[in-house]
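Reposting from the mailing list since nobody answered there.

I have sequence plus structure tokens for a pair of proteins and want to know whether others read the tokens the same way I do. The first protein:
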Amino acid sequence: MNHPDPRLGLFEAGPLQAFAGDVIKVGVVGSAKTIEDTRKFFDAAKGGFEGMSEKHPNLHPAFPGLTNQNPYRCRFEIEEGAALALSQARIEKISKEPNHQKAVELAVGEIMDQLRAMDESGDRPHVAIVALP
């Protein structure tokens, strides 16, 4: 099956190779608040969302949700041990850095440290989300 819009092709036919398992484990790096907001979004998205336009249904198609009825035919779950929060002190240090380039370097370094820790842990996810504060 070939479709010019990959979103609709995936929705109608599923992935080329189905995921070997019934859960895609998701990790999250961010502040305590952005991690909690990500969890809330995942909970809200489980049941899916209706499309936003009846006039142009391909522009904003319905979202099938994060349960087994989605195009990937598996659930998406945030791993408890793979939700790593940057400390408030580190976030404040980065946000108070007057040099923009240096602030970006500090932020990237902190995020990469958390992603490495996640990768090396026993709760290694399949996918990681960076939820910026």
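The second protein, same order (residues first, tokens after):
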Amino acid sequence: MPLQLAPSRGRDRLGGSSQPLERALEGAIMSVQVTPHPAWVAELDATLEPHREAILDTPVIVHASENALINGKIQDFLVAFYPIIRDFPQWLQMLLDRSPEDGKVFFRDNIRVERRHDAMWRAMGDGFNVPRARFQTPEPMIDEVKEFHAYLTEMCRTAPFGEAVSATNYAVEGVAQKISEKALRGLAKNVKIGPRGRWWLEEHAKYDDEHPIHALEIIKGCVQRGEAPKAVTQAAQKSLSYMREAMVATYE
């Protein structure tokens, strides 16, 4: 039985060098010290890359990149996938509640950012003429979304910390930036949805790649303290598989 939450209102491009990464996030400066990667990190990314590409090849993302989304299907997709967007801050709160001290700033900032993404997602719904009542009155989750939702809930609640961060921040946030970049190839030309309709995509394309970089540093620390590289890899791989299945099912 899936676990339920109440509604709430990349990879390292620095080659593993030890240097600060700073970027403005909605008016705040976030900084992470990127440490040299152990060998297992390359194996992690090599394992995950086909799963990331499979998500980018789902019909909804391909159609978005071609500015050829099917009207009824994209409306249903935005509503059916909404529980993942809506409840992401609550999963991050679960991680914050059991985070080591050196990760708390990251999770606090990430929660603040993700809370705004709910409104951004619903604004995208406005752009595609989704009736607002469909977001305000929760619809039953389809099976694939329910499985993905339950997996993230259980991981954030009970899994070893590195596995939970790998499944949530490294896997999901890591691919969100690439989803947004590809989707905007087509939707940037879509006059109908306007800037507000692209708000969620543009925000993720702009900065979200920093979140998985910081998440990876947290995961590396967990592995140093005894978690298994294979386990954190499998956690992220499973998350991406569930995510792909949900994205396919919600656009059918």
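Reply #1 (J.P.):
I read it the same way you do. Strands lie at 19-25, 28-34.
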